[in-house]
Amino acid sequence: MRKIRVLFVVENVTLAQIVRLRVLAGGLDPARYEVHFASASFPPLIFDDTARFARHGIHSIPKETVDDALATGARIYEAELLERYVAEELALFERVRPDVVVGDFRWSLSVSAPLAGIPCATMINAYWSPHAVRARFPVPDHPIVKAVGLALAERFFPLAMPRVFAHFAGPLNAVRKRHRLPPVGSLVEVLTWGDAVLHPDEPTLVPTRGAPSHHVYLGHVGWSPPVTTASSSRALAVIERLGRARPLVYATLGSSGAVGLVPTVVEALGGLDVDVLLATAGRFSPAGALPANVHAVDFAPGDLVARRAALVVCNGGASTGYQALEQGTPIVGIPSNLDAYLAMTAMKEASVGELVRGGACTVTAVRAAVTRVLGEERHAAAAREASIRFAALDPHARFRAVIERLAARSGAVAGAAE
User: Fold this and answer.
1) pLDDT, tens digit, for every residue of 7-54?
2) Residue closest to 87 by CA, chosen among 56, 115, 121
3) pTM (two decimals)
4) Is there a contact between 96 and 7 (Cβ–Cβ < 8 Å)?
5) Residue 212 and residue 244 in one domain
């Protein structure tokens, strides 16, 4: 019986893009599925136990370029780069001949997949959906905020947003036109293009209204470093002796948070009667001695630490935020880019945590937010309720159902049964 061949294609923008596809790929039964994984890099911490994956190296825009673009409000992609991606993907399809393609932040798949006639699933958080229920888009830490102030930026951002989103989507629509494909639309339509759209969210936390049936909530697709790594083992040893006489706070800004804010967070937490485990993701080295109550490791098994913690301080993004909520732990989120602001705004509205703007992050602001969350039972209660809803979703089962449906469209299921 022929296996269904699934090709995962990821853009290496943040660690989250890599790990959530890797987690879903790892949940596919090797007796039924043949897994191929295309990425610009394969970090050993994530891929050491994936020998059965066929790996394919592809070009990806440097993370530093993306960070600079997000910080200045510039476009991430231009048509020339997207054309390079399309050509590389078409060559990859020719070699692999997948039955289904699954992408995460790989915009060019909206050109290469239809040109090759391959069903494509796209992973994107529901807060980017054009069907998302929200009052408005939050204002990220754009330079304009410093220039005119937050109040004025919040007033005019909704007016400028349609033009900004169309500007971001322009290069992709131009590439589609060159290949005789119709335009996709604005940024939110670009991000949610696909024969299936996979939301790694919980639907009551990030609701949509009127979304088509091929938009599917998977639930949180979580990952933590293996406890066998030296850093994770050390983290476990540290938390064994912490959080007994006073609350344990787990702090991490992950791979995409504003690392320059870590000293502010450390100083804020150092002045509180709490124990702190700080996971640096290898991005931060203290200039001097840490406060006596702060203990640093490079990586930690976030799910296990969040389970023990009374509070998680993070960049407000979905990866660490949802990981905390799965364990019933409230958060203080410090977002900077729009993605993290969208995620953290949804979590704040659900009362599972507090938001501190990255562009206005001070020791006083962080300390006040942490004190409020630790002192008000409503946050912990809302987080516990969220954990029950998260537990009701099986992302692997939902994902397999999508793959089976797309494979049937390509004829792979019929071929597998012969």
Assistant:
1) 999 998 888 889 999 999 999 999 999 999 999 999 888 888 888 999
2) 115
3) 0.92
4) yes
5) no
